[in-house]
Amino acid sequence: MADFLIVITTVDTHDAAQKLSRSAVEAGLAASGQVTGPIETTYRHLGEVAEGTEYQVTFRTTEDQRVALEGHLVGDHPYDSPEVIAFRIDSGRAEYLDWIIRATR
Description:
Helix content is 32%, strand content 39%.
């Protein structure tokens, strides 16, 4: 059985989020991409605390697509050092998980 993942990144504009979501799904690297936002963020950068607005993109994919999806996101990302993190999906309906497999093949 395939291992299933949720992969998350954030970007600074809604357009950038939609572009990443669509391009990853079109490339077959993710079964879906969901854009959430705007979200308010506080972060430390270059020794300073800053605040801003971002959009989160959440992908559903398989473990065997993780490296390719990460490469795609980093290559098309507007940030120099983007957040790309992954979490395992521990359980899910068989029909849903099968759809993730079919959509990423």
